[in-house]
Specification:
single chain, Immunoglobulin-like, 1 helix
């Protein structure tokens, strides 16, 4: 089993409807977005040295997630100078922590969750020589972020490849409608179309729409070319050797999730270059004029 870490990167800045009322699974008309990547805010200590306040969501907190966790980090020597850290939100102290890693964490997905809307978080570090602080903006929203799942076997052909993208974390009823999805490898993974797969079924595409309807399509490697599926306007195209190695375009109306499974001979179409090195695959989702990318990767341990 592959154990992996996640990182999300937004390609566009979005105004989140933080004032929307809570709904199930999320408010209507939510934008396509991803939380993160994490941001670090430096705090220069009065007697020398630097620590950083870490915001793992990069300024966005989806209240649909269960927990939030902010912390102060630094070298052992610099953290040893810190007596306590105070966290304040919108001018009101909400947490004082006298022990490393100096965290402010709590439930974001319950009745005690983070208040909806735009906030300012101030982080104050106290030392024997004085105090110093930094602050950052935080938007708490009931809209769910987009995300992706990537499963690659340790060895090519030794298990299914799964590439999936979702326009919201728990949709699909009020999820943004996807127009297209592409997958890009930036580290230690590559696509190929071996002769042994030509003319054969190599997997399937499953598309989920906002009413939870799922439709499955067969993927077949052509004897010539690289188009694995062509039906109506829907296309699945493999690009062997390219960084952007798989594209799904012409999605049906109200599509909220796309999952490509490559099995059998098709499991060799996308593979790790080395099972001992980390990899990274990005899923770029497009809804209208908005595109975001969610990166997923890791390594076998």
């Amino acid at each position: 089993m592959l154990r992996h870490s996640l990182a999300a990167t937004a390609l566009v800045a979005l105004a989140l409807p933080a004032a929307a009322h809570a709904a199930t699974p999320q408010p209507p008309d939510c934008p396509l977005y991803v939380a993160g990547p994490a941001k670090e805010y430096p705090i220069a200590l009065p007697a020398g040295g630097t620590v950083t306040a870490r915001d793992p969501g990069g300024g966005i907190l989806p209240r649909t997630r269960l927990f939030f966790d902010y912390s102060v980090r630094g070298s052992s020597a610099d953290l040893a100078k810190v007596q306590k850290v105070e966290w304040a939100m919108d001018g009101t102290a909400v947490r004082s922590d006298p022990r490393a890693p100096f965290e402010w964490k709590g439930l974001s997905g319950s009745q005690k969750r983070m208040p909806r809307g735009d906030h300012t978080v101030k982080v104050t570090v106290f030392t024997a020589s004085g105090q110093a602080s930094t602050q950052f903006a935080l938007g708490a929203t009931d809209c769910q972020p987009a995300y992706a799942e990537v499963e690659l076997p340790r060895s090519a052909g030794k298990g299914d490849v799964r590439l999936a993208a979702f326009s919201s974390f728990e949709g699909p009823k009020t999820a943004p409608d996807l127009d297209r999805v592409s997958f890009t490898t930036t580290k230690n993974a590559a696509a190929a179309l071996p002769a042994s797969a030509r003319g054969r079924t190599v997997g399937r595409l499953q598309v989920t729409t906002g009413d939870s309807t799922r439709k499955t399509y067969r993927l077949r490697a052509p004897r010539r070319g690289t188009t694995l599926l062509r039906t109506g306007g829907l296309r699945v195209v493999l690009h062997p050797g390219r960084t952007r190695f798989l594209e799904v375009t012409g999605l049906p109306a109200n599509a909220s999730a796309v999952a490509v499974t490559l099995s059998g001979r098709g499991s060799r179409l996308v593979a790790l270059r080395s099972a001992t090195r980390s990899f990274d695959v990005g899923a770029t989702m497009t809804a209208g004029r908005t595109s975001v990318t969610f990166h997923q990767g890791g390594r076998f341990v």
